[in-house]
Amino acid sequence: MTTQEFIGKENFNIHTQTVSESCPSNIALIKYWGKYKDQIPANPSISYTLNHCKTNTSMEFVADESFSVQTFLAGSEEVKFAEKIEKYFRNIEQYLPWILKGRYIIRTENTFPHSSGIASSASGFGAIAKCLMKLDEMFAGKISEEKSLRKASFLARLGSGSACRSLYNGLIVWGQTEEVQGSSDLFAVPYPDAEIHEVFKRFNDWVLLIHEGQKSVSSTVGHGLMNTNPYAERRFQEARENFIPMKEILRSGDMEGFIKLVEHEALTLHAMMMMSDPAFILMKTGTLAVINTIWDFRQKTGLPLFFTLDAGANVHLLFPSNGSEEQIKDFIETELLQHTQKNGVVKDVMEF
Ligand code: PMV
Predict the structure, then answer these.
(1) Quick one: signal sequence residues (predicted)?
(2) Burial of 77 by CB count in 10 Å (0-12 exposed, 13-18 middle, 19+ buried)?
(3) Which residues of the chain are under the pLDDT cut of 50?
(4) Domains present along the chain, CATH in parentheses
(5) Atom of ligand 1 nearest to the CA of 30
(6) What pLDDT, in 10s, does the model give residues 35-87?
């Protein structure tokens, strides 16, 4: 697969237009950390798309005016974000040849708190890519829904890598792997539904807000640190290898295997940052307390409560929606919430 199929048509017909779209965030189970030129991932990744944590975006395009971008985040003007989007639009011109032929006013808001560590760049670029494809349909003509989604995923990737996985609901793969047919480094694809055990189709993700504030390492810096990390190649290889057990786990419903693999991936991501130069420790005291309390709880009860982490201190608590759900929720409220800064928790689900 090459980028050729995404090159835009030169014959288009622009006019002033406003479009709106919404896109959820996602949480990776096998992590993407490290990339090559043009946002090509160093290894394949797989994520759950969240159901409630979304970005809602409206894009006003004023045709035939000189190119400029103005952005508003929850009503307040954001100049830095506008500069980022301007650069992004210039970068994707070959795929949408009309894109620099007007002025944009972009209004965006998240349904989740900014400080939650929930990937707003994933939902944000996902929503922008969907808006762009809506405009493209009006200006350059309709293409099939499948092709349009794939191109939205391709475009979102060029904004923020993990955003390409947010275009689809369910379990989503980005990055070429022999284990998933049709997978690509250029865009994400849904993991085949027929190969997913029912137990993985209704899951909870409760995000504990351990530390609210700016992340100490941006993902751009974080990916860059992998270029000099002496363990990087082994890590990329491990992520590729992890698709083999993951496939079998998803097919058979092996919860124990799933827990072990997902927690290992999260800890590996953080270990990579600890072994980078400069080193980063992104966990806080509360993160460690939560992890130890979860391990204790699992040992005592055998119930399937486990965690994953993004590049930050907050903890994503994962547990299936089945018989033990209420007991797990009670435990979170009574034992884990105390480790957050302000009793902060964002409750989401994955259902498909
Ligand atoms: O899409 P980026 O460049 O923000 O990278 C995201 C990386 C992680 O969230 C840490 C892992 C992942 O696969 O989503």
Answers:
(1) none
(2) exposed
(3) none
(4) 3-191 (3.30.230.10), 198-351 (3.30.70.890)
(5) 13
(6) 999 999 999 999 999 999 999 999 999 999 999 999 999 999 999 999 999 99
CA 341/CA 312 separation, integer angstroms:
14
**Do 118 and 315 contact (CB within 8 A), yes or no?**
no
Q: From ligand 1's centre to the CA of 269, what distance in Å?
A: 10
Distance CA 111, CA 120 (A): 10
Q: Is the pTM of this model over 0.85?
A: yes
- Residue 239 C-alpha to ligand 1 middle, in angstroms? 14
If 0-12 CB within 10 Å is exposed, 13-18 middle and 19+ buried, where does residue 55 land? buried
pLDDT value at residue 255: 98
Question: Which DSSP letter does residue 324 get?
Answer: T
Bridge partners of 69, per DSSP, are 104
- Which structure tokens are listed for 67? 């190119």
Our mutation pick for probing the ligand 1 site, out of 219, 235, 273, counting the most ligand atoms within 8 A of Cβ, is 219
Tell me if 161 CB under 6 Å of ligand 1: yes
Give pLDDT, residue 120.
Answer: 84
Q: How close is the Cα of 121 to the center of ligand 1, in Å?
A: 9
Cα 198 to Cα 254: distance, rounded to the nearest angstrom: 11
Tokens of 320: 């299936």
The Cα 7–Cα 3 span in angstroms is: 7
Contact of 225 with 273, CB cutoff 8 Å: yes
Alpha carbons 116 and 200: distance in angstroms, whole number: 24
